[in-house]
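Bumping my old thread because nobody answered last time. Still need a sequence for this structure:
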């Protein structure tokens, strides 16, 4: 069954101009009638239910988080995507226990995930996440791909060093707490 391109655009919530560009670029299965009207198949160009994911490493960058999310929403709007949800998270890209990302991994109600850079999603294992979502029928779209692998590698290196320094500092702090606890218990036992 077919419908006019204008009807298809209205049902998908995109402008006629955007729908026409989709048809012109071969993204929609349709034909131009002798009258000039374009008709497309009803199931052509399955509409994307898009989720935007934005992340910053610390609370100090919260302003950047909002502007990052807004840039991605603007990008989606320009591409003709309907944004179903915007997820903003504060947490390290190396951290594997980000609550909102974990929830997103379990969701099955969207078919496109848009992130500004790969490292906004995760510092390591991006390809694993892409494969997982691909198996669930979700396309991951990275807006700004790194053009120079050296920059990407350097950023990963800095992240690893930062992560290990934080863990080392945490270990030292917990060791001092343990030593103080033992000292207190020994002092209480003598008293």
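Sorry it took so long. Here it is:
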């Amino acid at each position: 069954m077919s419908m006019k391109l204008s009807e298809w655009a209205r049902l998908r919530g995109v402008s006629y101009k955007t729908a026409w560009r989709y048809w012109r670029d071969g993204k929609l299965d349709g034909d131009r009638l002798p009258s000039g009207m374009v008709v497309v198949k009803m199931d052509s160009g399955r509409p994307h239910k898009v989720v935007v994911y934005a992340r910053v490493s610390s609370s100090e960058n919260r302003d950047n988080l909002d502007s990052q999310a807004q840039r991605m929403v603007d990008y989606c709007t320009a591409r003709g995507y309907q944004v179903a949800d915007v997820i903003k998270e504060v947490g390290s890209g190396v951290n594997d226990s980000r609550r909102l990302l974990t929830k997103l991994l379990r969701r099955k109600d969207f078919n496109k995930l848009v992130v500004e850079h790969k490292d906004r999603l995760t510092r390591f294992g991006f390809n694993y996440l892409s494969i997982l979502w691909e198996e669930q029928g979700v396309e991951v779209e990275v807006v700004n791909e790194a053009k120079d692998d050296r920059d990407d590698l350097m950023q990963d290196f800095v992240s690893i060093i930062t992560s290990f320094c934080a863990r080392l500092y945490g270990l030292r702090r917990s060791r001092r707490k343990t030593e103080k606890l033992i000292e207190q218990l020994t002092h209480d036992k003598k008293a």
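Residues 2-41 form one domain. Let me know if any region looks off to you.
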